[in-house]
Amino acid sequence: MRRSRPAGPPTIASIQREAVERLKAALFGSDPYARRRYILDFHQEFRSFRRRVGWKELASASGRADIVFVGDYHALSSCQVFAVRLLEEMVRRHPGRVVLAMEMVFGRHQRVLDRFLAGEIDESDFLRRIRYEQDWGYPWEGYRAIFNAARRLKVPVLAADAEPRGGLATIRRRDTHAAARIASVFAAGGQPRILVLFGESHLARGHLPTQVHGALRRRNLTARSLVIVQNVEAIWWQLAEQGHEETDAVLVSREKYVVFNASPLVKYEAYRQTLDRWRGELYDDGRPDLTPTVHHMIDTILRFLGVDPYRQRLVRPGGADFLVDLYPDVFPVEDEEELRSVLLSEGMNGADATVEAAALGRRGSRYVAPINSLFIRSFELLASVEEATRFIRAVLGGRLSFPPALVAREPAQGPVAILEEALAFFGSKVIDPSRRPIIVFDPDLPTASGRASVSHAGSGVMEEGRRLGQGLYEGYHAGLIDRRGILALFRRDLSRPGTATTVLAALRERLGSGSPPGPPPQARKTKRTG
């Protein structure tokens, strides 16, 4: 049953959709390939689903198949994380028989790939020899994880693609080439189980899977196949409308599934960053400029809160500034020591700079309120969104100083820290509603799916805050708290003694203790519509 849409405040899903449409318009404009038959085949095949499923069903189905085709959205590292998890599961069920076939490497580079996996050449030499940046160019981190897993699991990797890659003119010939290489693995004997990792559009009916079965028939061979694609936008919106955006997988049709490890907004932001890098929109030292991504996330969260940054004015000594004029600077840093050096050069004392640098080390990103800047060491979108949410909390809570004070904020402790962590996690839920804190992570789901937030040793306050943030999100949808109530939390001054304790107790009571927040996510049936 779909959610009704009465007049009133926009839902998180509608805000997500607006943000995605704006982003897609900026990224693709009038995409010349969008109406091509090859692309339409995919969208028409994966436009609805039968039912939601769990990891056990998905793993069992992959265990029965001889070939598992997995759709890869190349710019999104969580897609490669899922491929690693599935590869591990296949090796567990079929030790010594699994082969990985990858679009990323051309068949002519098979020997180079073999030498890399054998440790005969290092990573930089491998990337240079296969012309990684020139011929592929997507973020390397996710693919590094795949190759590391293949080496650890002793899984041979088949270089399956062929040149040229540009456009759709030769894509069917590339499918035919890949199919012949995959069929040759079966022809060699040994009853292999193959995980085929290719771009999602290759996996529609009549594309690569059909070509593979045709190549096998010509050799008098047969194989059972399974198709798994990831993060299909049309189906994600349907799930969100039904209140099931935390679903991990759905059955589309017989032996066809879709898994989810990112919202559409996260998916297209990842592509935006890849395009920016291809266009050379980098800092002088070659590091990416993540300012547009962070500011877009701030815009989206403010949209949910009902705050217009172009109209909201913040009073300061001698005048007022529009909120949009106070958006933070965003800088990449190599490590904690570089951040510490930057803060010292800005006049912050050594002890406070060390505190901020340590926080960067734990989180990968750090918003430093005294200089209104967000620093990113290792970019993980939702971790950076949490820090962007801390900016929103600081600016709406009146904690930005004019001019900036070069003294670090006092480290939040106890109830203050829990509330700050809850709001930061809630902000990340606005961007990706499927995200879950590790504390409510379903043990039946793949532990490497990328859906749970990262947990750190000794981070009890962090986990408690994120659990409360999850409860705040679910409480909003259950009608226990509205947007005005959440905005009030962002604006609340917690500096007076005892205030945070009172606010935390009242919020927990309002949400129904917040510990833990309700039944497992897939058990929820209804949600707030406005």
What is the first-to-last residue Cα distance? 16 Å
* Overall pLDDT: 87
Which term fits the overall shape? globular
CATH architecture of the domain at 29-263: 3-Layer(aba) Sandwich
* Count of extended strands: 13
How many helices? The count is 20
Percentage of residues in helical conformation:
40-55%
Strands of the widest sheet, in order across it, are 1-7-8-6-2-5-3-4
Parts with pLDDT < 50 across at least 5 consecutive residues: 1-6, 439-450, 453-458, 514-530
Largest sheet: 8 strands, mixed
Could you please describe the fold and organization of this structure?
The structure is a single chain. Among the domains are: 29-263, Rossmann fold; 283-297 and 313-410, no CATH class. 47% of the residues lie in helices and 12% in strands. It is built from 20 helices and 13 strands. The strands form three sheets. It has an eight-stranded mixed beta sheet, with helices on both faces. Strands 11-13-12 form a three-stranded mixed beta sheet. Strands 9-10 form a two-stranded antiparallel ribbon. Helix 9 packs across helix 10 (208-218). The protein starts with 11 loop residues before the first helix and ends in a 19-residue tail after the last helix.
Brief rundown of the structure:
The protein has 530 residues and is of the alpha/beta class. It has helices at residues 12-28, 37-45, 55-64, 77-93, 110-117, 123-129, 132-135, 140-153, 171-187, 208-218, 233-241, 264-278, 291-305, 336-345, 350-363, 381-396, 414-431, 460-477, 483-491, 499-511; strands spanning 51-53, 67-72, 98-106, 157-161, 193-199, 225-230, 249-253, 256-259, 313-316, 319-322, 329-332, 365-368, 373-376. The strands form three sheets. The chain has an eight-stranded mixed β-sheet, with helices on both faces.
